[in-house]
Design brief:
Layout lengths: L20 H5 L18 H24 L3 H9 L18
Helix pairs in contact: 2-3
Bound molecules: zinc ion.
The site of zinc ion has 6 residues, from loops.
Amino acid sequence: MSAAGAHEARATEWYCEAYGPEPAEIGALCFRSGELGKRVCNDQDECHRVMAAERRRVFRRISERAASGDQAMVFLEGEFSSPEQLLGGGQDQEADG
Ligand SMILES: [Zn+2]
């Protein structure tokens, strides 16, 4: 059968990388906006760029805090080995078991 319309991602409708589809259902559309139902990014490309930068920032923050002895951050540093694992960047990674 035909895949009517092929369901292309529309320019104004995408899931924020930090959240994904499920939070979007309750209105968590954009990590940057911090408000339900509100989007700050103009397009998916912008969302992607912003989130990539945000992941690096958070990742660096974790490293810095871990280095200063923050145990929670030491834990997180052990959990995340690259920025891509943060904030929805590694959605296709699966936890063991
Ligand atoms: Zn966004």
